[in-house]
Design goal:
Elements: H1 3-21, E1 27-33, E2 46-48, E3 55-57, E4 63-70
Antiparallel strand pairs: 1-4, 2-3
């Protein structure tokens, strides 16, 4: 095998692995707003993602954001 073929093989392997490398370490976030039955924001509501220790509390406008959620299925 010539040097040119070896380099071409390495490039092909690298290109094949590139899409999978981009998936490593990715996380998601969940944003929302907590409102009452009268459509008023709920201040200080604690939200925990089931089965994890991830969570947030709603702000003065009822908004929350849970960050750095690993990809997966949650209940």
């Amino acid at each position: 095998m010539t040097l040119g073929n070896k380099l071409m093989n390495k490039r092909i392997i690298l290109l094949m692995l590139l899409p999978f490398v981009s998936l490593i370490g990715q996380t998601a976030s969940l944003k929302g707003k907590v409102i009452s039955d009268k459509a008023q924001p709920v201040i200080g509501a604690n939200l925990i993602l089931a089965g994890t220790s991830l969570g947030d509390a709603s702000d003065l406008k009822g908004n929350f954001e849970i960050k750095n959620i690993p990809f997966g299925v949650y209940d």
